Sequence to fold (219 residues):
Amino acid sequence: MTKPVKSRPYHAPRRREAAAQTRRAILDAATRLFAENGYTAVKMAQIAAGAGVATDTVYAAIGPKPVLFRLLIERAISGEDEPVTAEERDYVRAIHAEPDARRKLAIYAKAIRHIQARLAPLFLALQSAASGEPELAALWTEIGERRATNMRRLAAELAETGALRSDISVDEAADVIWSMNAAEFYVLLVQQRGWAPEHYEQWLTDAWQRLLLDDQSAR
Fold:
């Protein structure tokens, strides 16, 4: 009597890890190509070649080009392979927990330095392509409005500490932070003027503190 053939065990964790590695390779290749060449010039086949996979694999693992680009933007903002909401990010939690307004701004400036190192090249590609790509135009507007909403929350936190200048409204403070945390600002100072990222962070901290906080908060 022949013995039944044992089936090979199904290694689900191994398959998931292989799929995650493939997805990461696609995202890394796409990030590099979009940053170097802009959105319009990059073809899905180039991304596939850069990741060492078939073009169909890119579509199966991520989706079409606008979906892929949106994921790259969210990934750069979050600093994670998967998008993370603002309230789930470590630096946002640290800002909430910090009672001192000056320290809140220092924490945020440090976060912006790291975020823009990842995001700025992609965001410039998004800005350039948005006028001709309705899905990217919607993404550009969405990201800008989301940033504005989050900066309104940060400015409100500054006001709650009692350190916000009395002649500046919460809305004005939010707009100041919103304008200065932009990718364009980072590119001008770090990439075009050659500032060290650490110097950019310290300058941003000092500028926000001087512009937004009462002198008494420094004592």
User: Anything to note?
Assistant: The mean pLDDT is 90. Residues 65-218 form a domain with the Tetracycline Repressor; domain 2 fold (CATH 1.10.357.10).
